[in-house]
């Protein structure tokens, strides 16, 4: 009985550690299935049951435009999603699963609080506007995501990895943000 309890305790600790390793997020990202870029996945986008390639593929999404996803969490190199927009379709579809984070991107848009005609945006060292600015990006730049925390997107830009504030991000490559 003692072994069974010890085993259950250890398993619950692993489960708790996995849960705590997942950061909560609330942002939109995109995957492009058409245009040649570092984020293109011509074979389609696998939605998995867990964070990793060993997890079962729930479905593979593919169209000529790509998809926008609502990200609710991150675990390692994987984003948890709870719904998506298929291409140009204005209605979202519920789908809970995991997508590979490095295949996602955002396009830089207007930063909240700044004048609309200022085309330069800050990449911060930490997910707060009080953090050191490590790089500047221009409106229209497309950057791959590597993580997220709340409404902050962690991106790779050149040799830098940093944080973009809410409102800087636009999850679609073509057309207006909104």
Which characteristics define this entry?
178 residues; mainly beta; 5-stranded antiparallel sheet; 11% helix
Largest sheet: 5 strands, antiparallel
**Average pLDDT:** 74
Report the helical percentage.
10-25%
The secondary structure category is mainly beta
Order of helices and strands: HEEEEEEEEEEEEE
**C-alpha Rg, in Å?**
18 Å
Approximate strand percentage:
35-45%
How many H/I helices?
1
Distance between the termini: 58 Å
- Describe the strand arrangement of the main beta sheet, using strand numbers: 12-11-10-7-13
Low-pLDDT segments, ≥5 res = 4-20, 110-118, 173-178
**Total domains:** 1
For the secondary structure, the number of strands is: 13
How would you characterize this protein structure?
The chain has one domain. The chain is built from 1 helix and 13 strands. By secondary structure, it is mainly beta. A hairpin with an 8-residue loop joins β2 (45-48) and β3 (57-61). A 5-stranded antiparallel β-sheet has the order 12-11-10-7-13, with no helix packed on it. The protein has a 4-stranded antiparallel β-sheet with strand order 1-4-5-6.
Quick overview:
By secondary structure, the chain is mostly beta strands. It contains one helix and 13 strands.
Give a topology summary.
Layout: H1 2-21, E1 23-31, E2 45-48, E3 57-61, E4 67-75, E5 78-86, E6 93-100, E7 105-108, E8 120-124, E9 133-138, E10 142-149, E11 152-157, E12 160-164, E13 169-170
Antiparallel strand pairs: 1-4, 2-3, 4-5, 5-6, 7-10, 7-13, 8-9, 10-11, 11-12
